[in-house]
Model the fold of this input.
Amino acid sequence: MKKLFLVMVFSLILVAPSLSHANLIVNGSFEVGFSNYAGPVNYSFAGWTVTGGSVDVSYAPSGNWWKAADGYFSLDMNGSSVGAIRSDAFATVTGQTYRVSFAMAGNPYGQYCQTMTMDASVNGGTPVGFSHVVIEPSYYAGMPLSWEDKTFTFIAASESTFLTFASTYNQSQYQGATLDNVRVDAVPLPPSALLLAPGLLGFIGLRRKSSK
Done:
């Protein structure tokens, strides 16, 4: 029992740091699977499916598009209508805490000082709302956006999980919140949890003695 416990603790020490760097989302920066338009409901591209309205894909090196937060591609969540996308399901460990992070901005074409809004949800549950104020006073091809890093955490309730992102900005059907660099990382055990190991080992030893 003692040897087994030590092996478990040592494994946690080795695995915990790596968990925080393993992105569980496929194609989180939208670099694969399309040219310049993600299309209407039920359109699927690598790792994602459009589940509401439509979305546009911005490709920075060509056309009248802006710079992505990561790579060359990003999404405008209002294509020709208010859109939503869902990730492919990814494996999770029930009871494990995960961190979702992503970059958010807004299509600035004619939307100066507008507050773009978007919801994110896990397995279709209660959405978490996010917002971004467009600060770009003018629009031009290849322009940078005022990307903001957004994050929230969830505790996995099952062994399979998916994310949904849905625009809630209805002031323009063609310009909406922009999305890029989506990540899901397991949150490693804090160092304080590992410090409990000696105490747990002692407790197991006492139980073994008392049972003899």
In short: DSSP finds three helices and 14 strands in the chain. The helical segments are 2-19, 191-195, 197-211. Residues 74 and 180 are 5 Å apart (CA to CA). The domain at 22-188 is CATH 2.60.120.260 (Jelly Rolls).
